[in-house]
Write a structure and sequence with these properties.
The complex is a heterodimer of chains A (165) and B (455). Chain A is of the alpha/beta class and 165 residues long. Chain A is built from four helices and twelve strands. Helices cover 53% and strands 10% of the residues of chain B. The chains are: A alpha/beta (165), B alpha/beta (455).
Chain lengths: 165, 455
């Protein structure tokens, strides 16, 4: 599979799992895209550890220090898996994996170079796993009442993935 | 729960379930939906049969060398900061977890869905010891509010309809009545979020334990599994010994098969891989992790003729297609595990004396074998257990006598001929004596036997 095919497959599978997907060309476009996703006075948590994260929240007005008080988390994630449309969050670089769980809106920034075609390729890249690895596919969901799908039980009700070069 | 096993009353339990029309409607809706979703999801896999072979081989490979894999898992989990315990039986596991929590002064524990914890009756034990246990899976939360036990291993409240859940929430939580699953889910989110943040400990099960890395793997959709394993400082995980996989390299096979077989999803919303405790520089993970590996009869199963049962990955596909389960529901089986996998596992784990009527809970149609992602020969196992039941003397006396008489008669044509004539003559009496379970299912003896019709 070419890089382009991998990205296309990833976008298709992520959308099937009810994630919002968006592709931006560069960090300038990223800075413009994020404020549109976290409108309505949402309190935004962003670890701002990487250049992409810093670009993502450059124009976000309402930021908070802790994810526990946040309505949305904006963060760069460890990897993507095209086969399943999943993103991967992990306890690396001092990151709190719960930041992708507690706020009701999760905005994941995923560079195309971090997308693996298959689950096998992702696990081969992982090596010795850090303490907490979460493979995330779409928003939190349940079908515990009459098998009727309901979104947003304990985790985020909304997941947006921004794929960038 | 383990103390209140009612598997011996399977017939009476079933009769009660069959009379409950709202239960039957709920069961039909749920199992039909699951069946359709499962079929559609598996169609997406190019070579499904090869994938099932692989999954079955991996599980057998683990069972063939289980002690070795467990040793390896223990070493690697310990290296990653976990404390690994072995519990020989349900009581040992309950007491161990109870004392771990008591010693640390835990008042409230948030709990993720775990069938093994149901098997050992953990909640009742902890509550008796003064520790509040809050079930956080929506289905488990519903049945905990109602004071019931799960009726399906994947969807514990499968037997309840939305009106019943709406009334339950209105009564117990003091919220306005609603029968919209979306609204009810939001209510549960709010109630449980407070509990999560206040809990002193998280208790979870695990779908797999990875020998090579010492990791636990959990498949969840709601996010509560992620909460209980990463938010509280203390995390206790309980799983049965056979849940080991050799390495993370085998996990993709099970990620492809387990959610598809269980709920018809290509993957669950979350697959969590937890490896030991929080390490320096990390901001996630429990500070203390205890992993309890429960045997509770598994070693004995492993040494016996039904060891393939331990390949089971608890997807629940066998129950969704089982004509008996679909009719009587999960509670009729009288213990933790229902359906085809449940009738076999229950009989093996709790012994024939407590569960012999369950061995009848199958038509031997083989639908369960067709859907099992790890190719457990359930029909073969059920037949083995039926033989074992007779050897152990738990068959019905009338059935045994009838079979002995039949066996003697078919070996002597003259006796068979006269037996047939006599039974035709006394047919109404025989029907009355044996009841509708036996005579009601047999054809009336013919006035002109087959061999007389032959030229």
């Amino acid at each position: 599979m070419s890089r382009e095919e991998i990205v296309t497959l990833f976008m298709e599978k992520a959308a099937l799992a009810a994630a919002g997907t968006l592709e931006v060309a560069d960090s300038e476009a990223l800075s413009a895209a994020v404020p549109l996703l976290v409108q309505d006075g949402k309190k935004v948590y962003c670890p701002a550890l990487t250049q992409l994260e810093q670009a993502a929240v450059r124009d976000v007005v309402f930021r908070v220090e802790g994810y526990a008080q946040a309505d949305a988390t904006v963060e760069e994630v460890l990897a993507g898996i095209a086969e399943t449309g999943s993103i991967v969050c992990a306890s690396v670089e001092g990151r709190a994996v719960q930041a992708s769980l507690l706020p009701s809106h999760h905005v994941a920034i995923l560079p195309t170079g971090k997308i693996y075609a298959t689950l096998e390729e992702f696990f081969a890249s992982l090596g010795t796993p850090p303490t907490n690895v979460a493979i995330i596919t779409g928003p939190s969901r349940t079908a515990d009442i009459e098998l009727t799908l309901a979104i947003g039980v304990h985790g985020p009700e909304r997941l947006d993935i921004i794929v960038t070069a | 729960m383990s103390e209140e096993q009612t598997s011996r009353n399977f017939r009476a339990n079933s009769a009660a379930s069959i009379a409950d029309l709202s239960l039957r409607a709920a069961m039909k809706n749920a199992t039909d939906t699951f069946g359709t979703r499962r079929t559609a999801a598996l169609e997406a896999i190019a070579d499904l049969e090869a994938l099932r072979d692989k999954a079955s081989d991996v599980r057998m490979q683990v069972l063939d060398r289980l002690p070795e894999y467990l040793e390896k898992f223990t070493t690697n989990a310990t290296r990653a900061g976990a404390t690994v315990h072995r519990a020989a039986d349900a009581q040992a596991a309950r007491e161990l977890i109870g004392s771990l929590l008591k010693e640390r002064g835990v008042k409230m524990a948030a709990k993720g869905k775990s069938m093994v914890s149901e098997e050992i009756g953990l909640n009742a034990h902890l509550q008796a010891a003064g520790i509040e246990v809050v079930e956080t899976d929506l289905g488990e939360f519903i049945i905990q509010l109602e004071g019931e036990t799960p009726s399906h291993i994947i969807v514990p409240a499968i037997h309840k309809n939305r009106q019943q859940v709406g009334r339950l929430f209105a009564d117990r939580l003091g919220v306005p009545y609603s029968e919209d699953p979306q609204v009810l889910t939001k209510i549960a989110r709010k109630v449980m979020r407070e509990k999560f943040l206040a809990a002193d400990a998280g208790i979870s099960g695990a779908n797999f334990a990875i020998a090579e890395t010492g990791s636990l793997v959990l498949f969840t959709n709601e996010g509560n599994g992620r909460m209980v394993t990463s938010v509280p400082k203390l995390h206790i995980a309980i799983l049965s010994v056979e849940k080991v996989l050799p390495s993370l390299a085998e996990l993709p096979t099970f990620i492809r098969l387990l959610p598809r077989s269980a709920t018809g999803q290509a993957i669950t919303s979350y697959v969590s891989i937890i490896t030991g405790t929080r390490k320096p520089g990390e901001a996630t993970g429990a500070q203390e992790l205890h992993i309890v590996l429960l045997d509770n009869g598994r070693s004995e199963i492993l040494a016996g003729a039904c060891r393939e049962m331990l390949k089971c990955i608890r997807c629940g596909a066998c129950m969704n297609v089982c004509p008996v389960y679909r009719t009587v529901g999960g509670h009729a089986y009288g213990w933790t595990y229902p359906g085809p996998m449940g009738m076999v596992l229950t009989t093996l784990l709790t012994g024939m004396e407590k569960s012999y009527p369950l061995v009848d809970a199958s038509t031997l149609c083989g639908a369960c074998v067709d859907v099992c992602p790890v190719r457990i020969p359930l029909v073969e196992l059920i037949l083995k257990l039926r033989e074992r039941r007779i050897k152990e003397g738990y068959s019905d006396t009338r059935e045994r006598l009838g079979m002995r008489f039949f066996g003697a008669a078919v070996q002597r044509p003259e006796i068979f001929f006269w037996a047939q004539r006599v039974s035709r003559l006394f047919w109404p009496v025989i029907q009355k004596l044996t009841g509708k379970d036996v005579a009601g299912r047999l054809p009336e003896p013919s006035s002109r036997p087959f061999h007389r019709r032959m030229p």
